[in-house]
Amino acid sequence: MFVLFEEAGKFMAGRVLSEAEASAQVELDSGKRVKVKGANILIKFEKPAPAELMAAAQAQAQAIELDMAYEFAPDTEFGFADLAKDYFSTNATLTEQAGMLFKLFDTPHYFRRAGKGRFKKAPADIIAQALAAIEKKRLQAEQIAQWAVDLGAGTCPEPIKEQLYKILFKPDKNAPEYKAVVEASRATHTAPLELLQKAGAIASPYLFHWKRFLLENFPKGTGFPAIAAPAIADELPLAPVQAFSIDDSQTTEIDDALSLQGLGSGTVTIGIHIAAPGLAVLPGSPVDALGRARLSTVYMPGYKVTMLPDDVVQTYTLQEGRDCPAVSLYVTLDEATLEIKASETKLERVPIAHNLRHDQLDAVVTEQWLTDTEFEHQNATQPASNLREQLSFLYRLARDLKAKREVVRGKPETFNRPDYNFRLRRAEPPQAAEAPSGGSATREAGSVGALTSNDGAEPQGDETVLISIRQRGAPLDLIVAEAMILANSTWGNLMAEMGVPAIYRSQASLAPGVKVRMGTKALPHAGIGVKSYAWATSPLRRYTDLVNQWQIIACARHGKTAALVAPFKPKDADLFSIISQFDAAYSAYNGYQGAMERFWTMRYVQQHGITELVATVFKENMVRADDIPLVLPVMGAQGLPRNAKVRVKLGEMDLITLDVHGTVVERLDAPAETPSTEADESEDEDDVAGPIAIAVDVNEAPEGASDNSAS
To answer: Rounded to an integer, what distance in angstroms lies between the CA atom of residue 659 and that of residue 651?
Structure first.
């Protein structure tokens, strides 16, 4: 005897070996033996053979008219054999009964299952909805197939263009646009990104990078809601100083300024004045929410995305001609020996006399001009000339502070590579090309600067790019850098002494691989050479600095009881959350800035027709261009020592992957000339762009798949 039974949603048939009251041992045609529950056995028969019955029943099921079967079916629950007798005849054959079973089972939108072999008609409105869904799916499948054909033929359908960045980086793997890309990629044996490039989906390499960045970091756009900057309620005393800031011409977020008192008296007081949004913006306020959502200003050549709305920034920025609220650190020192005697933190209004622009003054404020009182430039520049005595003292102090830090570090800081300034010019309109030149946007030491000299407009990728060199450690840079290090380390120590938690940056040692970490403990920063270091001097640009400013304000107001009233308490979980979020965002922003600097450098190479360049070997098969900020892998550098000078012929460049290779065609220095100096830890090896990580997986079925987006 044979049986037809259902097992795990499938129909099978086989020969009965033995039968008990509630189950049977059945041997399938494959020879496999299975135990079948009695309730799962739907038909018992003597002939034909199981395989023959299954084949005949499947054919019979295809011949059954579904609408007619629906009409014959009763409104109440029924069995498949009963419907077969109503549809065919009262003497319905075994094949007809099995065929009806298969038909009912395969059309759940018409017949709902009510048990093993039992069914019930679906309501007419449900059937209509199901048929509409089936038709929609059919049409969608046709659309996917047509889109795939178009992609393979080198044409990108508009719906795929509109969803391009979502498809590549954050896809819905059941969306028809995604499925079409996968199908076309499989059919053409072409990688998805290359396929889309060939099909013209990526009109602009620049916009490709920009929109990808927005999708991953600003999915709702970079605009701000309308919001008013809260006023500072404190009655702040007016500081008896005339302060000045030093930034590039494009800086709008002026966070810091300096002042000097007591020159010639033997005791000098340097004032380091930081913009004080923390006096008005409170934790949990609407403006705070905006800052915490972004965590930092994003810099890139030709553009920036600010952490706070411009109206808010302009309320607290240290604009010349205004008495600006500030958190001030006053450091008193011996004028002759530069020994620090005392420090004090004050909350006050500071008169800002000048906003100096170092890109306009670097040629004037030189080391010789600062150290040689007899030296004069032909065209003296105001107000720098009026501040010459103060700038000269600050430069002397900066060099002394740097030297003392280097003693703690154990070796001097060396910056052999220059900073590069980027300036973008639009071809249209012509007058846009006359934007003033500028300096680098502020980043950590060792980074490449960026200028928003494109009138602040969002770049389109077709601008002309100009790259200029600015050697690191220029006097004005050194003055500002050392003053900020002094403030950040002094305030870090102050908060630690008062038991007020803060966000610190630390580095355990200068050993290779030991990186800078962020945490809430005041630990040494070996790279800078200070006891502790807490970012606090850029509260308009970095959220960590705003958080630390709140804590510093508590110290200034309450002294030794500050820990009781500071917004963040010891072991505050929210503080750890901020650190984690900031680390992730800051890393993403810096990564994008680096990618865009590389992009515009490659555009510079294209625009200037550069086919060869002089470069320096910095590790095996890797070189760094001498005159532009470009690092690339090369062939032909095997066996060359570090710092060897070579001429490199450039290969093709890919502005999507930011990939470029080169070939060493000539060594320019003699082996004996190559310096064997060990690289300073600050000379970080630049990352070379690699393949773009996309989320399109042509090796998995889209339905039900999870999003395995690369990060």
So the answer is: 10
Distance CA 576, CA 685 (A): 30
Burial class (CB in 10 A: 0-12, 13-18, 19+), 434: exposed
Q: How far apart are CA 694 and CA 202, in angstroms?
A: 14
User: What pLDDT is attached to residue 398?
Assistant: 94
The residue among 252, 253, 272 whose CA lies nearest residue 261 is 272
**Strand order from edge to edge, sheet including 78-79:** 78-79, 118-121, 111-115
DSSP element (H, E) containing 419 = strand 419-425
d(C-alpha 447, C-alpha 481), whole Å: 14
Give the C-alpha separation, 273 to 315, whole Å.
16
Cα 425 from Cα 7, distance rounded (Å)? 71
* Phi, then psi, of 33 in degrees rounded to 5: -110, 135
Q: Reply yes or no on whether the pLDDT at 264 is more than 70.
A: yes
Q: How big is the CA angle at 29 (ends 26 and 33), to the nearest 5 degrees? A: 35
| 493-511 confidence digits (pLDDT tens) | 999 999 999 999 999 998 8
Residues near 334 by beta carbon (within 8 Å), at least 6 away in sequence: 266, 267, 268, 341
Average pLDDT, stretch 245-253? 87
pLDDT band at 433 (very low <50, low <70, confident <90, very high): very low
* C-alpha torsion sign, points 317, 320, 324, 327: positive
Query: Is the per-residue pLDDT at 275 higher than 90?
Result: yes
- Residues 478 and 402 sit within 8 Å (Cβ to Cβ): yes
Burial of 139 (0-12, 13-18, 19+ CB in 10 A): exposed
Indicate the pTM of the whole model. Answer: 0.77
Report, in this order, helix, strand and coil percent for the chain, each rounded to 5: 35, 25, 40
What is the DSSP secondary-structure string of 261-306? E-TTSSEEEEEEEEE-GGGTPPTTSHHHHHHHHH-B-EEETTEEE-
Cα 305 to Cα 35, 229, 458, 541, 593, distances in angstroms? 68, 18, 10, 10, 11
Interacting residues of 591 by C-beta distance below 8 A, sequence separation 6+: none
